[in-house]
Amino acid sequence: MPPRSLQSFAEAVRRELNEHLLPFWLDRAVDEAHGGFIGRMAHDGTVDPQAPKGLILNARLLWTFSATYRVNRDPRCWDMAERAVDYFKDYFWDTTHGGAFWLLDREGHVLDDKKKIYGQAFSIYALAEHYQAFGAGSALQHAQQLFNLIEIHSRDRKNGGYIEVCNRDWSPAEDSRLSDKDMDAQKSMNNHLHLLEAYTNLYRVWPDGTLRERLAELVDLFERRIVDPSTGHLQHFFDTAWKPQSTDYTFGHDIEASWLLCEAVEVLDNAELTAPAQRLALRLAQATLAEGLDEDGGLYYAGQAGEVTDPNREWWPQAEAVVGFLNAYALSSDKALLDAAQKAWDYVEQYFIDRQHGEWFWRVRPDGTPDPNEPKVSEWKSPYHNVRACLEVLRRLTQIM
Questions:
Q1: Euclidean distance between CA atoms 111 and 335, whole angstroms
Q2: Please, which of 6, 98, 169, 328 could form a disulfide with 285 given CB 3.0 to 4.6 Å?
Q3: Cβ(178)–Cβ(190) below 8 Å
């Protein structure tokens, strides 16, 4: 497909956001029977009424409706944001020890009381967004409490960074895995990436001195510890002293980190950090373009030692690719990166958007066919990546048009 005009690009993204993605979540996400939001919806739109409710889904919905309200002032987004923040405070919040539970049953009873730092980070990210949208002091107070709890109980004062998982009482947990597919390692790239994201958003509304120091430390950790200097990819798992425990990488995390690092140094407004972080961001984007983007615009899932190890495409890396390549174009004026962003979006339109049942497919195979075994909604499948991509793309295209 030949490159479209930037105006046409923006119109396609705006149409997808307003006519497809937001209506899906506004109309079909609410759990009328048990409160909050549904926990799972199959590929074909069938809702599982017994599904548990995950912290990540609730936090990402809270972020989504708060962020979209800031743009469109739609009262339905206000209502949904309030539903999400109320459910978080009433059911996910641990009134005894502080922090947020990881998993609830359909009626809001606790199934997993672990304090997974990844989940606390997304809660901060969402609560800070809610405060930006509505000025609700209680949301900011909960976010501040979470920041303090993480800093007290999760931060590694000797080696830097943060441990992965705490028990309900914030003592260190024996099992450090975020999910069954993850390595049981003391530290991970993914945890630190989303702490970086959360602290960035919190600093926008709470320019606290300690928060500023910790955010700068996270930027530094990506440069010194997490990015493999020999490959330009993010390493995934580490021991306590930051010795790498894995050699594979995921192109979606590489390209997502590239623009989140730029966001972090933008809010910090620190000249000493900005130039190195932008160089690192550009290297991550260029490595993703060189090794991870197929000729058809689809982003491969994973690689190792310069070879693609998982050629499938998933909704969230594809969404992050559009934003990351646009960000890299703004840094470099390299038209190849702008073309990559457009190709990645063209792939979304051609293969990811489910025009029959709504939303985007979780996974698309290399031949362009969707995987029907993956859900549309789950503890992990939410509107955060694709709605955020639409909002970011529209903002960035406005700046360069």
A1: 49
A2: 328
A3: yes
Q: pLDDT tens-digit profile of 181-193?
A: 888 899 999 999 9
User: Which residue from 131, 272, 128, 105 is spatially nearest to 198, judged by alpha carbons?
Assistant: 128
Give the domain range for residue 24: 6-400
- Are 352 and 361 contacting, i.e. CB atoms less than 8 angstroms apart? yes
| Residue 82 CB contacts under 8 Å (≥ 6 apart), including other chains | none
How many folded domains does the chain comprise?
1
Phi, then psi, of 67 in degrees rounded to 5? -65, -40
Q: How far is CA 382 from CA 101, 224, 276, 286, in A?
A: 18, 32, 33, 28
Residue 373 is encoded by which pair of tokens? 């075994």
- Opening angle at CA 194, ends 193 and 195, nearest 5: 95
Q: Which amino acid is at 218?
A: L
List Cβ neighbours of 63 (8 Å cut-off, separation of 6 or more).
122, 125, 126, 129, 130, 384, 388
Distance of alpha carbon 288 from alpha carbon 132, whole angstroms: 32
Q: Is residue 1 in a domain? A: no
CATH of residue 197 = 1.50.10.10
Q: Band the pLDDT of 401: cuts 50, 70, 90.
A: confident
Q: Are the C-beta atoms of 277 and 265 separated by less than 8 Å?
A: yes
pTM given for the model: 0.97
CA dihedral 234, 190, 369, 288 (to 10 degrees): -20
| Cβ atoms of 268 and 219 closer than 8 Å | yes
324: in domain: yes
